[in-house]
Amino acid sequence: MSPTCYPIQAERTMDPITELDTLSDPDYLAAFAAGSLPPRLWTHYAHIRMAWLVLSELPFPLAVQRIRSGILNYNTVALGRPEAYHESITLCYAHLIAGALRPDQPWPDFVTANPDLFSNSKAYLGRFYSQDRLFSDEARQGFVLPDLAPLPRQAALEAYLATGP
């Protein structure tokens, strides 16, 4: 299979998670990067898988740059909606995923070990952020710290932010 091409014949035969998991990591990342991943597969689960793959390979600052640019590119190329990108949600999840990574842990084990990351994202982030703060223009365009409770390992995130991402 060409890395920039998605197997269309499977498109409607499985649920999005099962279908996404049939792609190898390199094929998934290539389809995502090319914007050829079908939009119906660009779910919360898909966002986390992409971030997990990138964070597994790169140091946090470089991974965040790759995640950010990848989502912006996909939203533009595949969805025609670059404005759908949300900086605070992206950086918050990158931080949470990075904190949950374990060396040599395969993807299925990561999924099983971290059910909160895969739950309803609004409810999960609602532990830390009020709806008004999280869905403000300021939070969409730049990272804002939570207003209800600190994130796990928030000091590490604040140290990263102090370096000027």
Explain how this protein is built.
With 165 residues, the chain is mainly alpha-helical. It has one domain. It is built from 11 helices and no strands. The chain has helices at residues 16-21, 25-34, 44-57, 60-77, 87-100, 107-113, 115-118, 121-125, 131-134, 137-141, 154-162. Helix 3 (44-57) packs across helix 5 and helix 4 (60-77) packs across helix 5 (87-100). The radius of gyration is 16 Å and the shape is globular. The model is unreliable at 1-6 (pLDDT under 50).
Number of helices: 11
Please, what is the average pLDDT?
Answer: 91
Number of strands: 0
Low-confidence stretches: 1-6
Major β-sheet annotation: none
How many distinct domains?
1
Shape: globular
Structural class: mainly alpha
Distance from N terminus to C terminus (CA atoms, Å) equals 36 Å
Q: What percentage of residues falls in helices of 4 or more residues? A: 55-70%
Q: What is the C-alpha radius of gyration, as a whole number of Å?
A: 16 Å
Question: Strand fraction band?
Answer: under 5%
SSE order in H/E notation? Answer: HHHHHHHHHHH
Please give the structural blueprint.
Elements: H1 16-21, H2 25-34, H3 44-57, H4 60-77, H5 87-100, H6 107-113, H7 115-118, H8 121-125, H9 131-134, H10 137-141, H11 154-162
Helix pairs in contact: 3-4, 3-5, 4-5
Question: In a few lines, what is going on in this structure?
Answer:
This protein has about 160 residues and is mainly α. Helices cover about 60% and strands about 0% of the residues.
Task: Write a concise keyword list for the protein shown above.
165 residues; mainly alpha
